[in-house]
Amino acid sequence: MVNTLLSQIQALGVVLDFDSMDPRTAESLSVSTTFHSMTSNQAIVNGQLQVQWDASLKPIVSQYVQDAAINISTEDGILKVLNLATVLLASKVIPYLDKTGRVLAQTSPRTAYNKDATVSHARALISAFDKHGISKDRVCIKIPATPESILACKELEESGIRTLATCLFSVPQAMAASQAGCLSISPYLNELRVHFPEGASSYIEYKDPVRQHPMSPIIYSIIQAFKEKKTSTTVVPARGALNRLTSACSYSSLLQAVALARLRPHHLTISDRVLSLLAAAPAKSDEHLAAVTMEVAGEKSVLDADYLVNNAAALQVAISRDAETSRKITEALEIFGRQEEESIQFLRKALSIPKA
User: Could you give the CA distance from residue 280 to residue 2 in angstroms, rounded to a whole number?
Assistant: First the structure.
């Protein structure tokens, strides 16, 4: 087997997750790479929904709308249809995952500040997966790490539904997710906006991202804190993928993937585009992938706080005092909201009955 940068990262003991719903790329890369789980979000669903619609999704979704008498003009009705589309997209990738791996679907950003609504959507997703032969032990629900939704994670975990805290940019969010019993957390290396045209100009290329990127010490600190606390919650950093990968961005993507591997998280979730780049890149020297050590961010009190008591009051305070984290959460939810709305409008148009 040819030694590539992708195989080299996997040889470090870092588990690879597939941050995409593209079954063709999953199939081609799975020949030489083992993926544990598949991650997704509203942007990934929106992109693949439109790519795969006519080929296989349209007949199944159309039949469901007809048989269940779904009113797609209502919010409740169209979200049921979107849940189904999400499940169908995930079902095409699960054959290329490890037998113990999970497919991940994300709750709606419109429920991010409503615990009960987040719980309800998570349960609806689990039910939709189950109806299509994917049991809950093969599913994990991604949930934005707001105070209200972290409490939703706790309730879901206590009922046997596994969760991953996403839209996560700080140590307090990570500690709260661990206290809620989340299966995993996914701290973002890059803020979400840089992956879309409107925010692409804010993307910064670092020559040494493991040392220079402002999120590297935060992710490192989370990993070390979880080791100290001996928590079972795993750290699954995400770097995302720019909509347009120029040669310069491609090189930067490789550098960032290597940087995350050097932090030695439990897993890495990597987009199909960046995975393809890693699979084509030759292996580096061992020094290039050596584990790093850096100063841990935050005082001990940050690690010891109870972030769930009093309706997650401590987490609310921590986020409100952190302007960067607050901004990034708000922007991420707005972007995911727009992506979800695009999917909704696409489905309504695709499923509408032409007038005679």
Answer: 10
Give 297-346 pLDDT, tens digit per residue: 777 789 999 999 999 999 999 999 999 999 999 999 999 999 999 999 99
Instruction: Determine contact, residues 89/81, Cβ cutoff 8 Å.
Output: no
Q: Is residue 247 predicted with pLDDT exceeding 60?
A: no
Per-residue model confidence (pLDDT) at position 201: 67
Tokens of 203: 């993307």
What is the CB-side half-sphere exposure of residue 64 using CA atoms within 13 A? Answer: 22
What is the pLDDT at residue 251? 66
The pTM of this model reads 0.94
Q: How far is CA 290 from CA 12, 258, 269, in A?
A: 9, 10, 19
State the burial class of residue 250 (Cβ atoms within 10 Å of its Cβ: 0-12, 13-18, 19+).
Answer: middle
Nearest to 272 by CA among 3, 4, 79, 6: 6
Q: State how far the Cα of 332 lies from the Cα of 278, in Å rounded to an integer.
A: 26
